Amino acid sequence: MKKFNKVTIFDTTLRDGTQGTGINLTLRDKLDIAAKLDDAGIDYIEGGFPLSSEKEASFFRLAKKENYSHSKITAFGSTRKSGNKVESDPYITAMLQAETPAVVVVGKSWKEHVQRVINTTFEENLEMIYDSIELLKREGREVIFDLEHFFDGYIGDADYALEVLKTGTDAGADALVLCDTNGGTLPMDAIRIMNSLPQKDLAPIGVHFHNDTGNAVANSIMSISSGATHIQGTINGWGERCGNANLCIIVPNLSLKMGIETNMNEKLSNLTSLSRFVAEKANIIPDKNQPYVGETAFSHKAGQHADVIAKAPELMEHIDGKLVGNKRKILISGLAGKSTIVRKLAKYGDFDKHSEVVSKLFESLKDQELEGYEYEAAEASFDLLIRKSLDRFVSLFDLNNYHLESFKTTGAKSKTVGRIFLKTKGVDHMGAAVGEGPVETLDAAIRDALQHAYPFLEKMHLIDYKVRILNPEEAAHAKTRVFISSTDHQHTWDTVGVSENIVEASWEALVDSMNYYYNNYVLEKN
Ligand SMILES: [Zn+2]
Fold first, then answer.
1. How close is the Cα of 144 to the center of ligand 1, in Å?
2. Ligand 1 centroid vs 450 CA: distance in angstroms?
3. Region 8-282: CATH code
4. Which residues keep their CB under 5 angstroms from ion ligand 1?
5. What is the pLDDT of residues 269-287, one digit of tens each?
6. Most buried in the list 22, 43, 67, 496, measured by CB within 10 Å?
7. 65 CA from centroid of ligand 1 (Å)
8. pLDDT at 372 over 90
9. Which CATH number is correct for 398-523, 3.40.50.300, 3.40.50.970, 3.30.160.270, 3.40.50.620?
């Protein structure tokens, strides 16, 4: 087998990643994420484009004060503008002022862009690249040269694209990063192009793929066999349009499947928590189906494979999820049978398949499913069912009553006002809140009532709320099923509620969520 070189991992979540729809990070978020990336062993953290805004520039000022143990913070900018002197060019100046150990200079390698976008001659484009890299090197920076649209440029005019690579090498670039900026390149074309490059005469090669054909990860890992030693990507694959190459998939593929060394290999078991931490900071619901780190990456539903799942679930998994810090999950459903229930109960002790506890749970699961409850996506609610059947459930409170009123005035947003009366540990509490909708209002009113009795509630909050109508043919009498996802920044859990009344269904899921947190992470630290 061919021996591969060690691969360096370059993260651009804080720059390219924030081009993704709905991804907004505050300065604080960016610093928190950078610290986590450093922890995970990422080699380069691209902090942003210092010229673009004050927020971006201040990131570099603050990051300079941090003591990163491993990662190099990297500022992004482009080659000097056509007609500008490199010494006074604003892009180059901003990169230098960021005072980072490494910089990324983006330049054109596609003739079409040289002619039609930056409107200059092919010669001046080469000069712009040379001048910019040469100056940054002279100023003591490590220079990573990103060749924008390299693959399209190579197809358009291979000789010119090669000229650009040579110019970068001659100017002293430490890495030449071939960018698939439009993301349209397929693996066989990427490999063919990379294999045709005179790599011996060039600076080390890196790659930066976008995911517009769904091949960003495939292109990235294939590029290793064509000589790349530097891979750029983002956490969770975020980025413009269809995203960037997903480092949460690339890194375990390199480490676990290809035996390639990276500085992240040792800390691979932090990967799942890194993925979720970054999602949490960006306020994005983590993609459950994400390979390796997604919540369902190691989930099993009995069905056709019931036997294997019951006897040896590891035979249905491509790796042990623990290697990337993920967990195996056996999903619960009436179809699953008693052996799945026994497995679910294992957390609480050894139970025989024929025991009364198992039979009762099995029956109540079937009844609940007839009512419209579904526990596959609401394991926390199922956990509470188990706890109740084992007498290991402690309720956070007893409800006396709640009262909600919705207001709508012409020209203004509707509002909901709520009051709740409840009892906990023998003491009555009252809470009140105003919110946009009933769920938000109920959540806030419960917290208002319990803030002194249970200050830990502050640590958890809702991250997702889904509503589904179960029997639409019943029109106004249709049942509603509500799923709620919650987090305490360490764990996420899902609960379900079902009712003909949407507020009641939401209430059930909401109270389950709080009770799950209370029983599992406060009373018993799991
Ligand atoms: Zn990009």
1. 14
2. 47
3. 3.20.20.70
4. 16
5. 999 999 998 998 887 888 8
6. 496
7. 27
8. no
9. 3.30.160.270
